[in-house]
Amino acid sequence: MTTELKNLLATVASAIEENADANARARGAAAAKTLSALLGATPGEPLVPPQVPVDPLARMVEQFKSTPQPALLDTLIAKLQSALPSPVEIEQGEGFRLPYVPLAGLEKKP
User: Fold this and answer.
1) 96 lies in a domain?
2) In Å, what is the CA distance from 63 to each residue of 1, 20, 35, 56, 71?
3) Which of 4, 21, 40, 47 suits 72 as a labelling partner, its CA being 20 to 30 A distant?
4) Nearest to 83, CA basis, from 91, 93, 75, 95
């Protein structure tokens, strides 16, 4: 058995596992179609494996999953800043002040 055939079978096997994601299932379907094309191929003719479109949303979700959170936050901040009108001045507030309010009856008694 060739390495390519083993890879195709492993791809199909990983696609039918219970916890396989949509991307793994799409790769498994493509591998299964390639195996089917191999079985129906005429010897001596070039084999063209079928192309299976990958769902763009699934590809985007996988890309977000693989991106570290700080990089995602930097990208989000850059996008939000680019949406603001240029020169933006952010005023500093006074800060948070909590007034002291004595509570009667809670003093320590000797």
Assistant:
1) no
2) 34, 16, 28, 10, 12
3) 21
4) 75
In a domain, residue 23? The reply is yes
pLDDT tens for each residue of the chain, 110 residues long:
688 888 888 999 999 998 888 888 888 888 888 888 778 777 777 766 656 667 888 888 888 888 888 888 888 888 888 888 777 677 777 788 888 887 776 666 66
* Tokens 């509570």 sit on residue: 103
Report the candidate in 31, 34, 28 with the shortest Cα–Cα distance to residue 16: 28
**Residue at 110 is within a domain:** no
CA distance 92 to 109: 44
Which residues constitute the domain of residue 40? 3-82
Q: Name the domain count of the chain.
A: 1
